[in-house]
Amino acid sequence: MELVLNVLLVLTSVLLIVLILLHRGKGGGLSSMFGGAVSSQLSGSSVVEKNLNRLTVFAGLVWAVCIIGLGILIKA
Prior knowledge:
Layout: H1 2-22, H2 37-43, H3 46-75
């Protein structure tokens, strides 16, 4: 069980890094670097931003559950 949580923790950590970097920042950030105008048009869509936010929150919740689960398993 501990191995499964460790693997899931690593996967969600990498996924969170990617998702957070894809968010549109105030100055454009990394999301505007990929594709220039095409990326800015896509990230301007409210549907795309909402889905990206939902994915980020879901990945963050899975990450938090993994942290808590590992803490409980290691302490016991």
